[in-house]
Amino acid sequence: MPQAAPPPRRGPASIAQPAPARPAYDAAAHRQCLASLAADGARFESLPDRVYTSQCSALGAVRLLDIGMPVTNLGQMTCPLADALTRWTRDATQKAALAWLSAPVVRIESFGTYSCRPINNVAGARLSEHGLSNAVDIAGFVLANGRRITVLDDWNGPDAYARNFLRAVHDAGCRRFQVVLGPDANALHRNHFHFDMGPGRACR
C-alpha cells in the first residue's frame, strides 16, 4: 500500500507560494504523448480529466498497465511523466543494473504518484507536482537474484556497486525528468528519488 502522507508541517509562510508558470493544457501535445508512450511499448489506459480542488488535479493522465516490469503503487500520472518513467525503467535502470549488479531488475518499488499536498508537506509552500499527478517517488529495486536495493539503505551503504547503481539511475533520471531529487538534496529525500515533469530544471 502507498505510504500515507504525513500532515502538513508549519512553515514560515502563511500564504501559499505561487507555482511557476507552466504551459496551458495542449490537446494536440497530449495526443502526441499518447502516441509516443504506445511506441515505447507501454500498455496504458487514458483517464478522464479530474479536478479535485481549486489546485489539485489530474489532467491528461494515464494509468500504466505494463512497462516491462512491475512498479508498485503507481496511480494516475500525466502522460509526459508516464513516458519518461517508461523510458527510464526500460533503458537506464536495466543497463545500470547489469553493469553494476550483474542482474536485471524485476520490480521497482515506488511510494506513489498523486497526492494533494504542498511541497515537502510544509504548510504555506506551493503545491507539489504530486498534487498535479506529475511526480513519482522511487524507493527501491528488486533484482532477479532476489537482492533488494533501496535508496535509504544503499545510497550511502557499504556496497560500492549498489552505490554506483543508485547514482547511475539517479543521473539517468536527470536526463529524462525535469526535476530529480535524491538523498543529496535534503533529508526529506533520504529514502527515495523524486521525479517530476514540472516547470524548471533541477538535479540534486
UniProtKB/TrEMBL annotation:
Residues 1-10 have a biased composition (Pro residues). Residues 1-21 are annotated as: Disordered. Residues 32-204 form the Extensin-like C-terminal domain. Residues 11-21 have a biased composition (Low complexity). InterPro entries: Extensin-like_C. It holds the Pfam family Extensin-like_C. This is Extensin family protein.
